[in-house]
Design goal:
globular, single chain, two-stranded antiparallel sheet
């Protein structure tokens, strides 16, 4: 199941992009936390943590990220760069759904090593990035794998379940929604995405697929799979690449607004006729009224 006339769909997507892709419309997206800092080093750290906690209800994500960054003080980069036992004690009471303060502390210990040796998360990521590869998946696998191996080497060859979730790797079949989201924020540059990373090709990015994106992309016939797996994310990205080869994740933020802000559930309601995707919904034989 793929799009038959991408030029028509592109017009709709461009219209959505013009409407929603604005800095003032970022909240309640966790990307908002990147822009709370002026120093690009703080922005990168805040973005990584905000993306890693971007699961669950939007309100809870906002609350949890606000709490975590508050515990870390005014300079997240310095907090991570100098992370120690005192920092671990400070985070002990933190909890976001099933991510605990210990899980975050384990992650920050790894990031401290990254910052000490590579100065930035970008520097570490680039060590495993091959611009000749078709997409970012290989680099993402090496990024997660290297950090997991580093942790295992200090913990009897084992990686905690909480840390494995925060470093969800494509090697385990994960769609890597949260890490792909972080990469979109860092690599793309427009009114929404920060574009802090300059050495990664935005054409290699993979669409971050969550419940909202999965539902809308099925409505648009961009993929045929039942679950939001890695295979589904790659199929969706391939469909968007037919529309925009140089920037396949360009429309991610705008489309996600329909699910998050407009509260689209896949069921018909009074606001549907105002939506630019209404015609595509009408074509679905399974659309519930």
């Amino acid at each position: 199941m793929t799009i038959g006339r991408p030029e028509i769909l592109k017009d709709v997507l461009e219209k959505l992009h013009r409407r929603y892709n604005r800095r003032r419309l970022i909240a309640p997206d966790p990307l908002q936390f990147v822009y709370k800092y002026a120093d690009t080093r703080d922005m990168e750290i805040a973005g990584f943590l905000a993306a890693d906690l971007a699961y669950g209800r939007v309100g809870q994500i906002e609350k949890s990220v606000t709490q975590l960054l508050g515990l870390m003080g005014e300079n997240p980069y310095c907090f991570v760069r100098n992370f120690n036992d005192a920092g671990r004690r400070r985070l002990r009471g933190f909890k976001h759904r099933f991510t605990t303060g210990e899980d975050i502390s384990d992650l920050l210990e790894l990031l401290r090593w990254v910052l000490c040796r590579h100065e930035s998360i970008e520097g570490f990521f680039l060590a495993g990035y091959d611009p000749e590869e078709a997409n970012i998946i290989g680099a993402l696998s090496r990024f997660c794998g290297s950090l997991s191996e580093m942790y295992a080497s200090e913990h009897n060859g084992r990686v905690s379940r909480g840390l494995m979730y925060l470093l969800a790797s494509p090697d385990r079949g994960s769609a890597c929604k949260r890490l792909n989201l972080f990469l979109r924020w860092m690599v793309r540059s427009d009114q929404v995405d920060a574009g802090l990373w300059k050495s990664v090709d935005k054409g290699k990015l993979v669409v971050p697929v969550d419940v909202h994106m999965g539902r809308l992309c099925r409505i648009l016939r961009l993929y045929s799979r039942e679950t939001a797996s890695l295979a589904a994310a790659l199929e969706i990205t391939a469909s968007f690449r037919r529309i925009n080869p140089q920037d396949p994740v360009k429309y991610d933020f705008a489309l996600s607004r329909i699910g998050i802000v407009e509260e689209c559930t896949g069921r018909r309601h009074s606001r549907c006729e105002m939506c630019d995707l209404f015609g595509y919904c009408l074509e679905r034989t399974d659309w519930k009224k």
